Amino acid sequence: MLCLLFLSVNGIVILTQKVFKMTLGKNAPLERLGLRYLAALRRELLLDLANLPDDRCAPFRRRYRALLGLPDSDARLLRYRDQLRHLWVNIHDASLARWVEDVHESRERVWLLGYLRGAPYVNPNYFLFPLALSFGATELTAKMAVCANPKCPEPYFLKNRGTQRFCDRRACLAYGQRQHKLRWWQKHEAEQLKAKKAKKRKKPRRRRERRA
Ligand SMILES: [Zn+2]
Question: How far is the CA of 45 from the centre of ligand 1 (A)?
Answer without folding.
Answer: 18
